[in-house]
Amino acid sequence: xxxxxxxxxxxxxxxxxxxxxxxxxxxxxxxxxxxxxxxxxxxxxxxxxxxxxxxxxxxxxxxxxxxxxxxxxxxxxxxxxxxxxxxxxxxxxxxxxxxxxxxxxxxxxxxxxxxxxxxxxxxxxxxxxxxxxxxxxxxxxxxxxxxxxxxxxxxxxxxxxxxxxxxxxxxxxxxxxxxxxxxxxxxxxxxxxxxxxxxxxxxxxxxxxxxxxxxxxxxxxxx
Length: 223
Fold this sequence. Notes:
Blueprint: H1 2-17, H2 19-38, H3 49-63, H4 65-78, H5 81-87, H6 93-122, H7 136-159, H8 165-186, H9 192-215
């Protein structure tokens, strides 16, 4: 546990060192759902409003992972940070993933909390607002999607050797989430258990693929 805490602390200092980029991405991730839910709601993407809310919240929180995971992993591999750690056997690869997941989950819930508070406030003046309904299903969805998006960020940072991986990361987010919820909509599946089970299955597959990439010694190969 101390190793994971140390990795999270290392990430925090890196956030501070890249403060402008991190806070800029954070503000975009925060503003995106606010704009959609209050000022430019387009419900043509999904027939079910709750599905639209789910996808927008997932995609908005996943944006911050560009800085917290995608680019950060790329920089650390490029600079040989992980290479030194692994050679000295200080950490395991799974501990890096777990530390990223924990820090991403915390940041995602901060964004989610701010979005909910702001949405409630704007609801006083915006008549056609899309409401966020807090539920156990929504919380579970955010936790599972955090794991999936963290894994997707890992995949793209390990496969693509420069920060152009942001394009492929964004594409993979759209493909996975909009594709998944579109399939549920086409099949007319509204059962919460099936939705959560499907996200869990995607998470497991994502983690297995990340594990495969890590076994290829990607973390200790400089670009």
